[in-house]
Design a protein that fits this description.
5 helices; 173 residues; single chain; mainly alpha
């Protein structure tokens, strides 16, 4: 029974496809007159969607940002206080797996750990900025601008610290 049905379906399908391809006159894909935009309407004066002014950053947000920047500042100060000792240890590092090399690795790890507060603050500032921009995607709100200022300051410290660590790591590999 299935074979008999298959014998009928295949020729029928071929005939239908042949009928579709037999014509050489296809409809034009050009824009038709009814599809053209016509008219002379202009927007009414002052009809533009005005974006309302957003309020300034709240006192809670400003206090939170100040705390994050202070945490990052303390972390950066700690980093700077350990940087000279780490640079001396890296400069004195001997062959791989020697005692001086191990001491340099420990000093470098300590230096990396000292910047964790700044990295954590930067991550939180990033999240605050993303949340604020998502809440007001049509414009940069005053709160987002305040967050961006704090974030840029902390990012500058983290970038400088990353540069120092990369340079020191390259010297003891």
């Amino acid at each position: 029974m299935i074979r008999a049905s298959a014998r009928l379906i295949v020729p029928t399908t071929l005939l239908m496809l042949a009928g579709c391809a037999g014509s050489a006159e296809y409809p034009s894909l050009a824009i038709r007159d009814v599809e053209r935009v016509q008219g002379s309407a202009s927007p009414a004066p002052d009809a533009a969607d005005a974006i309302p002014a957003l309020p300034p950053a709240s006192a809670d947000l400003t206090t939170r940002l100040a705390g994050l920047v202070e945490t990052a500042r303390q972390s950066h100060t700690r980093f700077q206080s350990r940087q000279a000792a780490t640079e001396r240890a890296v400069a004195a590092a001997g062959a791989t797996a020697s005692d001086s090399w191990s001491s340099a690795q420990v000093a470098l790890s300590d230096l990396q750990t000292s910047r964790s507060g700044a990295l954590t603050a930067l991550a939180e500032l990033d999240q605050l900025y993303v949340d604020e921009r998502a809440a007001h995607p049509e414009q940069v709100s005053p709160a987002a601008a305040t967050i961006a200022t704090a974030r840029d300051q902390v990012d500058g410290w983290v970038s400088a610290e990353t540069s120092v660590i990369s340079r020191l790591e390259a010297r003891i590999r």
